Amino acid sequence: MSFHWPLTRIEKTVSHNGKSVSQECAMASAPTRIRLSDVAAAAEVSVATASKALNGTGRMTEETRRRVRDVADALGFRPNAMARALSSQRSLTVGLITNDSYGRFTLPVMSGLSNALVDDGISVLMSNVEDDPVAARRHLDTMLDRQVDGLVVTGRRIDTALPLDLAEVPIPVVYAFTAAPENAVSLTADDAQGARLATDWLSGLGRGRLAHVTGPEEFAAARIRAAAFRDVAGPGAPVLHGDWSEAWGHAAIGRLWGQGARPDGIFCGSDQIARGVVDALRERGVDVPGDVSIVGFDNWSIVAAATRPPLTTVDMGLGGIGREAGRLVRALIEGGDVAPGPRRLPCRLVVRDSCGGSAPAAG
Amino acid sequence: MSFHWPLTRIEKTVSHNGKSVSQECAMASAPTRIRLSDVAAAAEVSVATASKALNGTGRMTEETRRRVRDVADALGFRPNAMARALSSQRSLTVGLITNDSYGRFTLPVMSGLSNALVDDGISVLMSNVEDDPVAARRHLDTMLDRQVDGLVVTGRRIDTALPLDLAEVPIPVVYAFTAAPENAVSLTADDAQGARLATDWLSGLGRGRLAHVTGPEEFAAARIRAAAFRDVAGPGAPVLHGDWSEAWGHAAIGRLWGQGARPDGIFCGSDQIARGVVDALRERGVDVPGDVSIVGFDNWSIVAAATRPPLTTVDMGLGGIGREAGRLVRALIEGGDVAPGPRRLPCRLVVRDSCGGSAPAAG
DNA sequence: CGACTCGCCGGAAACGTTTACGACGCTACC
DNA sequence: GGTAGCGTCGTAAACGTTTCCGGCGAGTCG
């Protein structure tokens, strides 16, 4: 049921002290929002009862409750969130802080988060703090002034922490897709499972000489994925660390081919790397996916789809991470006990054309 | 001055009815925020005076005002935004609605917006409404419940409108970088100026046979840029409309070269198109920037920097658009008279390597 | 038939600000 | 010295909810 501003006059029947007064409020020019007291008056109950009726609290005849609800619906009543917040000491608001200036990771997370919370009437207060601690502190303070009930922190990539110390913040904090303190509630993609998914897919297609081209070894995600890759592909399978760029993907092919290693399946640590790899192979006259199958990571569709051929890649489900962050922060706010520590959400494989074949034999 | 939670005990000196009572509130476990009444008590004035002192309203001795301010600082007082909102009927909050799921355009805008507003204590409530009108309505209603003072609407590209009718919304709306109703306050990049910048740059480098490869003609931005391009390059200069993709840039080169037209300067409607163009030229053995100079549009650094050679491109200043949107929405909220209609903010050229040469002769 | 119980509902006090209005003390002038 | 006038500050009523607690009606049992 959606709310529309009252464009007509509204009859308020106020019954007070036994005598019933009918008054009319003209709202041609400045439409006043319906207040709870208006609903109460129209339903001929007290404000207290109206509040309880609508919130499902308190005890009263089912008939009364229904009547209040019907009246509220008819009048298009929507509670004033400010008043509600002031009174209940809960703002029904969570803050989302990010340092991902491009939004590539953050926006899907924020979207999942806000969708997970909007049905509870919770909205998301967002701000982007570059890497300036002072500005970050100012944004955080503004959120705290606004009595946010919880905080979600996200970032541009795992391993780059925000310039903020949230240890003393008096509200629940959930870290999503960013570096988190040891004992915090945090959420990331399951890199190991994602890497296995990719590697299994390659070997399922009959690719036996696998290689992994990925980001810097300092990144936990890169290390975890590399380890999972070796679990499947064998301890001797080559793993090349570089940076997260196309240029590195390009260079890595030069290095592999220069060494005479000729993998027939390459799992890449990001779609950008994969794109560099595919381009380098094409330039060398190596056919993808004929000669070599490629799997990327991120499912950054703008890159994955523009690559020729379009990339088969691992999707981290950022939206899902956002939704789960919403669930967790809500649980924490409501006082539920949520075990601290990292949580990993499964990735899924998005199949496009860069691997050839169809499903692996095993199905 | 940043706010830190009080970790020590706080002496409150309450003077009431002439007699002064000193009481102590222990806050070892649950730190209570300092309220205005605490400040007032400590400064030995009334709550009203304290409020006026801190807000710079009302009249009082400069000494009193300073004393209250000093006490507030010392106590680390931060006003409760909910109470303030309820009382003053202004939530000090603006909503940002987008339908840009990737965040490529939206996040810079939101960042500029929130930075423009944070110093006034205004924060940004954000939500991403895909293209579902029902969900969009729900998000909007939640924001209105929260009494947002204004709304900024942004999108993934000019010309795709949000599935929302904001005509009846009782608060100011500013459209930033998205399709807007005729008489609304809206903000976009100055496409004509940006296109002239690019084209001038190319001819300044001595390129005389210019072409323009851009997005669909249905997009106003594409039409405007094309017109500006022809203003500079001459009415006969070829303009090729396609979609906003790399593939189209690639294909466009095939078409141009197939026709025997051999431009020596190409202005592209997006960095993605430019990338396709550059790749296609390389594949044909045409040297960029030796034989042909390329200019892109968007300064999407992740694409522009990954292209070989890195793209010289037009930056639309999305952050600036966000900041200006903040200024405008604040002005509207404060009742200032802002002329309706579209506003265009200047673009700037970011010079990388895809044009060769250095600055044009004219400087 | 009266008292006790129980369930439904209402009165009123919060929540922490802002702000209209009025009181009070001071100076200055007649 | 009384009073007008001005400038400071305090009292109290908002803002729109939630929630504690108590009253009051009806039903039941002695």
TrEMBL record, chains A, B:
Signal peptide coordinates: none
- Coiled-coil annotation reads none
The UniProt record lists the keyword Repressor? yes
Q: Which PANTHER family match?
A: HTH-TYPE TRANSCRIPTIONAL REPRESSOR PURR-RELATED, LACI-RELATED TRANSCRIPTIONAL REPRESSOR
GO molecular function per UniProt: DNA-binding transcription factor activity; transcription cis-regulatory region binding
Q: What Gene3D superfamilies has UniProt attached to this entry?
A: 3.40.50.2300, lambda repressor-like DNA-binding domains
Q: Which UniProt keywords apply?
A: DNA-binding, Repressor, Transcription, Transcription regulation
Domain HTH lacI-type: where?
Answer: 34-88
| Originating species | Wenxinia saemankumensis
- What Pfam families has UniProt attached to this entry? LacI, Peripla_BP_3
- What is the protein's given name? Transcriptional regulator, LacI family
Q: Which SUPFAM superfamilies match?
A: lambda repressor-like DNA-binding domains, Periplasmic binding protein-like I
